[in-house]
Amino acid sequence: MFAGALGALVAVSLAHEAVYAVGPVAQEIFRQPAEDVPEWLPVPNPTKSFWIDSPDANPLASEGSSGSLTTDADVCIIGSGMTGISTAYHLSELLADSSNDPLSAVVLEARDFCSGATGRNGGHLTPRAFMKFSTYAELYGEHEALSSLAIEHHTSNGIVNIVKSAGLELAVDLVEGGHVDVFFDEESEIEARADYKAAHDAGADLQDVQWMDKEDMLSKFGTANSGVRISAHNLWPLKFVSGIYNITKLKRGKLSLHLHTRTPVTSMSALDSQPAGLHSRRWNLTTPRGSVACSYVVHATNAYAGHLLPHMRGSKGIVPTRGQIIAIRANASADELTKVSWSGNPGTEYWFPRPLNATEGEKPLVILGGGRVHAPGHERFVIDDSTVSPVVGEFLRGFLPDVFPGKFDKAREPEMEWTGIMGYTSQGDPFVGPVGEDYDGQYISAGFTGHGMPRAFACGEAVAQMIVANLTGQTWTAPAWLPQRYLTWNRP
Ligand SMILES: Cc1cc2nc3c(=O)[nH]c(=O)nc-3n(C[C@H](O)[C@H](O)[C@H](O)COP(=O)(O)OP(=O)(O)OC[C@H]3O[C@@H](n4cnc5c(N)ncnc54)[C@H](O)[C@@H]3O)c2cc1C
Fold first, then answer.
1. What is the CATH number of the domain that holds 338?
2. Pocket of ligand 1, candidates 267, 453, 461: which has the most ligand atoms within 8 Å of its Cβ, to mutate?
């Protein structure tokens, strides 16, 4: 369906972390041979992130890491990030309203709970309003370009609704502050305005979009660059994922859920054929603690998908790409900084001030990520999040004082600095759906290309729907909000 458009290796940027214009050099790097990555499992000793390593932030860190292993489950979910736990949450929701038999599910996580990209990211929940609309319309058609926006709003609304209906606003530090894209050059603004017009002409809802000239930006935010403001949130991703895990676990509905952290799946093999049926086990997952027999397998492993699925390594699959973040104290008050989250356009930087709590001083901590393009190879094919890049670190330290003169101190050192591994795909979109012919009962939702917060939760929902449809012998119908080009069977 999209083969023509997808055949060209086009890395379209949606991401906070993505490079906005991918040129020949970046494409060359993208084609680096997969063998250059020595190890496809998460490294055991990652850098400490603000989200994971703040006191009491991760009570589920070592859940199910000792004692007996669940050796048998209807659905085995590999990975405990946003995607894996969303899949479990949605399975539980879908089963609650059906006449299906109860199911058992197990989540297997290589490291601590939610210690991959979701626990190490920038915390932005920013659904795109119109950016890159023209590119998508040109490559895939207007309908698909609109569904690229729809999935992000569906995800973002879904997350915010759960947080609000469960009363988790304070627990997950939900901030409804909006998001500003700041333009560091004229071309970026021209391109953004063309995207805005194309999206507007196609019928996208753009009523919240607010363009700001340099004077406006200077008086409101203290930066002498123009920008555009859209609706957006930020939150504590790990705490949201813990929240939906707890909701799912405690529901006592038709899904019994088990979690085993510090239990990497090192390999998998097909089980001898068994009588067909709901509880027929097709796959054996091997871990250092024993093996687990499963009917369905969900690969929610994002950057690490290539370990268990060798065909996902390399430019046609998912390329591990390291992002870096600092948490740095501002010189200005929370009122001066406002609650807005930011990204630079063009560029790769993204930041927002953390809400203050009573125990902190009056100057907010700002979470700032990006700078990857300054490192050799743009940190592509780097799977080690146990170290930071000094080059990227130096760039990040100098960034905010230059953009907001007087609000940040050039000599101040970050309070924390960490890395995390993103899963990049050549077209910038995740793979969602059945893994393929030789993998009966296996599904994947991975490859969010640095822009997973407004997509991963909904992609987990889509995979949960597919599994329930398969179980009940029904044909799965794609929801209107899901871009068709994400589906595994539509990939080149
Ligand atoms: C530095 C950084 C900044 C980012 N900033 C933003 C942002 O501000 N906004 C945004 O929208 N997106 C951002 N992203 C992207 C976003 O975090 C991801 O797209 C999203 O979290 C992906 O969720 P996931 O559950 O698919 O993957 P992950 O959270 O990476 O989860 C995958 C899990 O699988 C586990 N795993 C892997 N292999 C195995 C195995 N064989 N056995 C068992 N477990 C395994 C891993 O340990 C990991 O916990 C950022 C990412 C990074 C790294």
1. 3.30.9.10
2. 453
* Domain identity same for 205 and 190: yes
Number of domains in the chain: 2
- What is the pLDDT at residue 21? 32
Query: Three-state secondary structure along 391-418?
Result: HHHHHHHHHHHHHCCCCCCCCCCCCEEE
Task: Using the 3D structure, point to which of 425, 450, 477 is the last residue of a domain.
Answer: 425
Quick one: pLDDT at residue 19? 35
Rounded mean pLDDT, 12-27: 40
* pLDDT over 60 at 247, yes or no: yes
Q: Are 341 and 350 in contact (CB under 8 A)?
A: yes
Same domain, 414 and 436: no
Q: Residue 13 in contact with residue 428, Cβ under 8 Å?
A: yes
In angstroms, the CA 207 to CA 202 distance is: 14
Estimate the crossing angle of helix 142-165 against helix 237-250, to 10 degrees.
70
Q: Are residues 397 and 471 in the same domain?
A: no
Say how many Å lie between the CA of residue 400 and the centre of ligand 1.
26
Cα of 126 from ligand 1 centre, angstroms = 16
Within this chain, do residues 224 and 330 fall inside the same structural domain, yes or no?
yes
Same-domain check for residues 293 and 353:
no
**How large is the C-alpha radius of gyration of the chain?**
22
Range of the domain at 351: 176-233+319-425
For residue 368, give the 3-state DSSP assignment.
strand
Binding-site residues, ligand 1, Cβ < 6 A: 16-17, 41-42, 78-84, 108-111, 115-118, 120-124, 264-265, 300-304, 307-308, 323, 325, 350, 369, 420-422, 446, 448, 450-454, 456
Asked whether residue 332 falls in the same domain as residue 421, the answer is: yes
Nearest to 23 by CA among 8, 36, 10: 10
Let me know whether 295 and 389 are in one domain: no
Does 5 map to a domain?
no
Same domain, 367 and 409: yes
Q: What atom in ligand 1 is closest to the CA of residue 418?
A: 1
In a domain, 298, yes or no: yes
Any idea how long the chain is?
492
Atom of ligand 1 at shortest range from CA of 81: 25
Query: If pLDDT is split at 50, 70 and 90, which confidence band does 32 have?
Result: low
Q: pLDDT tens for residues 300-323?
A: 999 999 999 999 998 889 999 999
Helix, strand, coil distribution of the chain in percent, nearest 5: 35, 20, 45
* pLDDT at residue 20 greater than cutoff 70: no
Q: From the alpha carbon of 119, which atom of ligand 1 is closest?
A: 29
